[in-house]
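Re-run requested by the PI after the first attempt was lost when the workstation crashed. Everything re-entered from the original request form. Ligand of interest: S-adenosyl-L-homocysteine.
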Amino acid sequence: MSALKSIVEAEIKASGPMRLDRYMDLCLSHPEHGYYQQRQPFGAAGDFTTAPEISQMFGELIGLWLMHMWQEAGAPKRFVLLELGPGRGTLMADILRVAKLAPDFMAAAEVCLLESSPRLREVQRQTLGDVRHIERLESLPEAPIFAVANEFFDALPIRQFVKNDFGWQERLVGAGLVWVLSETVQRPDLDTEFAGLETGRIVEVNAAARAISGVITKRISKMGGAALVVDYGSFDGVGDTFQAVRGHKMVDVFTHLGEADLTAHVRFKDLVQNGVAHGFATQGAFLQNVGIAARAQALGGAEAALHRLVSASEMGELFKVLAMVPDSYGVIAGFENDT
Ligand code: SAH
């Protein structure tokens, strides 16, 4: 039995069936045996390939979008350029390369990274040089914030609940690593959020995503700025989306503890808080709107990457882009004809 499996089984034996958020947290972030500490997740030899690892165009266009939003905000003399879950640091490296075109933007930016894995913090320092890692979002400098997150929110631990005729049952991980159901509990918050849901349906609750977006949206409302969140999911869908990926293939969620990436689809509606205005589009539509076709042509030889990023059969439809801006903001660049 793997070390992580023994740890999970021992905890279940001692305390009873384990909540799914605890299981995800142990598998992904255990300080010794966790996935992000153990594996090299990204790229062809890893478990999955993310948009910034496919092509520099992705980060460059996001960099230009952030620079545009900073201009629109009156070009504040000091701001936080924040990335959540930067992986290998590729996206931020591409953003900073285009940002060199605007020395005022660069001079005003304080780059901050939120990263839980010590191993990846080291990789990011190698890619980006001397950057500031923050432990907690609450310790962000008091300034407007321009933030980006790619495939970050899907990695945060979720809980799942099944609706029955009397209330809700939580899906838990039982001994031997199988699904078990809790007793029926009353959850007025879920009754309200998922009013009219049929009996037997599963809903997912991502408390960490709500908390993190709460801090960022509060900051945007109060001090100004913008956030761009790219991930797979939907605006307000329901259902079981918990999955494990290893070597670019879906695998069983209870088999490869610490050796497979565990994620759930992002419910983007949960992120829109504190009165921010938002834009929402597919990744394909957003990238087309901000000019990826022209960028691909200028680069040359980028047709395959363009296809992977924007076409509906690849990442273009499954991945969504959410922009969050202050309440008073008008039409958001890239979302002119959003849905
Ligand atoms: N944005 C990168 C990496 C995506 S993988 C890319 O697109 O390639 C998810 C990233 O989020 C990893 O860097 C992982 O270590 C980090 N991460 C996961 N959970 C986190 C948490 N709770 N706090 C901070 N970082 C986290």
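Saved to the shared folder this time. The first helix runs from residue 3 to 15.
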